[in-house]
Write a structure and sequence with these properties.
Rossmann fold, two-stranded antiparallel sheet, 6 helices, globular, about 220 residues, alpha/beta, 9 strands, seven-stranded mixed beta sheet, about 30% helix
Length: about 220
């Protein structure tokens, strides 16, 4: 077991070095990826894939995102909102939420699939993470806890959900992949009063953001 832990730690260091080679340079982000043990969000033999730089299925048509994708989105958020209250849409495995927690954010996360929500909460409890998780339609946000300094959406959307824009705090920032089913452009939206500035970045492929303000669940 001790040897296995050492091998997993070495794999985690190698993963972070890969992220650096891909252009992730923010020291705080890299430190968070060293701190959070990604293999704890995998089960059984799938642990062998935990530190590969690729997405991996977690059931119910969902994936744990590629480490580079998580690091890229996290960097975009951190550079604009270095602290505060953050809402994640799409808990999934819980890995992204754990990374945000490691960066010192107050983390709220929404999942629409009961089984994934329960698994993520179990991991948060086991790791002693103070992360609030709710089962609901993520496209409608979490109005009872708004406003949020940051919102990070871990699924591809056809357009930015209006309720999420309305739940951003002044100068708050949302990171969201926008586009078609097959390809989305990572987009940063920042609120200044009633004006929402937008920046567009690289293209990615995410699972669809399903909900009232996203894609129709009957299509998938």
């Amino acid at each position: 077991m001790e040897r296995s832990e050492k091998l997993l730690e070495l794999s985690r260091v190698e993963m972070v070095e890969t992220l650096r080679q891909y252009g992730i340079e923010n020291r705080k982000v890299l430190d968070a990826f060293l701190q959070v043990k990604r293999h704890l969000f995998f089960e059984g033999d799938t642990i062998d894939f935990a530190y590969n730089d690729c997405a991996y299925p977690i059931g119910f048509g969902q994936t744990i995102s590629q480490p580079y994708t998580v690091a890229y989105m996290t960097t975009l958020l951190l550079e604009r909102v270095p602290s505060g209250k953050v809402l994640e849409i799409g808990t999934g495995s819980g890995y992204q939420a754990a990374i945000l927690d490691a960066l010192g954010y107050s983390v709220y996360t929404i999942e629409r699939i009961p089984e994934l929500k329960e698994k993520a909460e179990d991991i948060f409890l086991r790791l002693g993470l103070d992360i609030s998780c709710s089962l609901r339609d993520g496209t409608l946000g979490w109005p009872e806890e708004a406003p949020f300094d940051g919102i990070i959406v871990t699924a591809g959307a056809p357009k930015e959900p209006g309720p999420l824009l309305g739940q951003l705090a002044e100068n708050g920032c949302m990171v969201i992949p926008l586009g078609s089913h097959d390809s989305q452009q990572m987009t940063v939206i920042r609120r200044h009063g009633d004006i929402y500035g937008r920046e567009a970045f690289h293209h990615f492929v995410f699972v669809p953001l399903v909900g009232k303000e996203g894609w129709d669940s009957t299509v998938f």
